[in-house]
Write a structure and sequence with these properties.
disordered N terminus; Glyco_hydro_39; 565 residues; Immunoglobulin-like; hydrolase activity, hydrolyzing O-glycosyl compounds; Glycosyl_Hydrolase_39; 10-stranded mixed sheet; hydrolase; 30% helix; glycosidase
Length: 565
């Protein structure tokens, strides 16, 4: 064993002990990160290519269509999209945490009337861009709800969140009519898009039935699920049906709900068929972080979000369904996308680079957790889209504001440029995974780490400098050493998200934070919102297949190195 390798092993062990004891260290002068392209793992599954939002009618509006086009363009694989309120009754007027399609009404005699034009407008927007729906089966149409009044909520940021839960959250008065509605929906989808297309969708029953989104009992949710699944499978036996889309299993009550649901699907009585068990093609649950304002600044907390994932993985592995695909159908730094920073100052992280560095770090750690628990993680939805006709940079959890991309969207552009197999990272100063799951990123040491892939003609490396505390910190020198490159010369493209690159928010602030943006300003902001190079592309000569790249990485910045050969 050479001295350098022995030093790295000893230092890594020492750091694991230090972090487990909660001891802080001063920042080192230089971070050394090494990767050997011969040490390859599995292909990097695009778990990041999933997005969602409450307000389905934004889908076909101006900025919604623009953002969906950008999301489709940044990914080499189909992007999956999930939206609430696909069956909610109303005229299609969009509002915060509200949407409607009027898909189901009844005539004067109580006969079902199916109206699919708004649902079609939503699905058409996805399918025409090569995107795939995660079809959330909900919420309850007014004509079916056991308690329909009041139905349309008038919630606004700053109000009691429980005011959101109105007549749409209740069980159906007739479960057979509910089942037939789902059957007709799937049948209509096949007629419009073809069987092969609809087979590629995911069908998920409801959202977070363990809290106010469902005003029934767990048993009533299981009944809702069974009838929905029966309707889906009746129309298309090969369709993929799943749930229960609970809140994070890090909460004991959510964990118990998930366990009960899996047990019901395994050996419970099916409420629709009377047989044992229920169809289950995938399992879904959520994970959320918890930012706070501490001493006048935002302090993020990745621990609850990752702990939700870990607890969910444990529950699935202990069930008869551990082989099934898993979807984290919401995976975010906190819970309310429509709560801006005016009413919720802890959400001030959303406009700038803290959101982007957090996202780079949290998704990379989610890959590590999936490896640790050997689960079949299919995707993790960022519940973050856009809010039509709102104030500029008002602190919503969105990817773009008024059609201008925020820094966080550029992290997904980076992920979209990664392909091939994962490469093992040797990082002596890496914060251990268990430490981040337990306590997030605190103390004096930032999470400066990397995720790398290699394919036949290129190597991609994402590096971030993340810390929970939104306070000024010094730039950190970084050296990335890549070994066994199969070429004598490589072309390096170095992309960056920081205060000066890929950051429309900082450009907008320098304009004076205008709420009335001119056409010229819009064009400048639009360009600033794109992923930008830190420097001009350059050729690097390797030495015995090795190349070292030196740069400084500011606080909350993300770099992306693309080496092509």
């Amino acid at each position: 064993m050479n001295n350098k390798l022995l030093h790295n092993i000893l230092l890594t062990g020492l750091l694991a002990l230090i972090f487990s004891c909660g001891i802080s260290l001063a920042q080192p002068s230089n971070r050394q990160i090494t990767m050997d392209l011969r040490q390859q793992g599995k292909p990097l599954r695009p778990i990041w290519a999933y997005f969602g939002y409450d307000e389905p009618n934004y889908t076909y509006m101006r900025d919604g269509k623009k953002l969906l086009s950008e999301l489709a363009a940044l990914s080499p694989v189909p992007v999956y999209v999930r939206a609430h309120n696909l069956l909610t009754t109303g005229d299609g007027t969009a509002a915060l945490k509200w949407g409607s399609t009027n898909a189901y009404t009844e005539d004067a005699q109580g006969n079902p009337v199916y109206t699919w034009n708004l649902v079609d407008s939503i699905m058409d927007t996805y399918v025409s861009r090569g995107m795939k729906p995660i079809v959330e089966i909900g919420f309850m149409p007014e004509a079916l709800s056991v308690q329909p009044k009041p139905y349309r909520h008038e919630w606004k940021p700053g109000m009691d969140y429980n005011k959101v839960y109105t007549g749409w959250a209740y069980p159906p008065r007739d479960y057979k009519k509910w089942e037939t509605l789902i059957y007709e929906w799937v049948k209509h989808s096949i007629q419009r898009y073809g069987q092969a297309e609809v087979k590629s969708w995911w069908w998920e029953v409801w959202n977070e039935p363990n809290i106010g989104y469902w005003k029934g009992t767990p048993e009533e949710y299981f009944r809702l699920y069974d009838h929905a699944a029966n309707g889906v499978k009746h129309a298309l036996p090969e369709a993929r049906i799943g749930g229960p889309s609970t809140t994070g299993p890090g909460w004991d009550k959510a964990a118990a709900y998930l366990k009960s649901f899996l047990q019901h699907c395994s050996d419970g009585k099916n409420y629709a068929t009377g047989k044992k068990g229920s169809p289950l093609d995938f399992i879904s649950f959520h994970g959320k972080g918890s930012p706070k304002v501490i001493d006048g600044h935002v302090r993020m907390n990745m621990s609850p979000e990752l702990n939700d994932a870990a607890k969910g993985f444990e529950i699935v592995n202990a069930s008869p369904f551990k082989h099934l695909p898993l979807l984290l159908t919401e995976f975010d730094p906190e819970g309310c996308a429509a709560c801006g920073m005016t009413t919720n100052p802890e959400n001030a992280y959303r406009n700038g680079t803290m959101y982007s560095s957090y996202t780079a770090s949290s998704f990379a750690r989610l890959y590590d957790l999936a490896d640790k628990y050997s689960v079949n993680l299919e995707g993790a939805i960022s519940w973050s889209f856009e809010f039509e006709n709102q104030r500029w940079f008002d602190g919503f959890r969105d990817l773009a504001t008024n059609g201008i991309d925020k820094p966080v969207l550029n992290v997904f552009r980076m992920y979209g440029m990664m392909s091939g197999n994962r490469v093992k990272i040797i990082n002596p100063m890496e914060i251990p995974l268990d430490s981040i799951v337990k306590t997030s990123v605190r103390g004096n040491v930032a999470d400066i780490h990397a995720l790398a892939t290699v394919d036949k003609n290129s190597t991609s490396v994402m590096i971030w400098n993340y810390h929970d505390a939104d306070v000024p910190r010094e730039n950190i020198p970084v050296t990335i050493t890549i070994q066994n490159i199969p070429a004598g010369k490589v072309l390096l493209n170095h992309y960056r998200i920081d205060q000066d690159h890929s950051n429309s928010y900082e450009v907008w602030k320098k304009m004076g934070s205008p709420q009335a943006v001119t056409d010229e300003q819009y064009q400048i902001l639009e360009k600033a919102g794109q992923l930008q190079l830190l420097q001009s592309p350059q050729w690097i000569t390797t030495k015995k297949g090795e190349a070292s790249i030196h740069f400084t990485l500011p606080a909350q910045a993300v770099s992306f190195l693309k080496l092509t050969y």
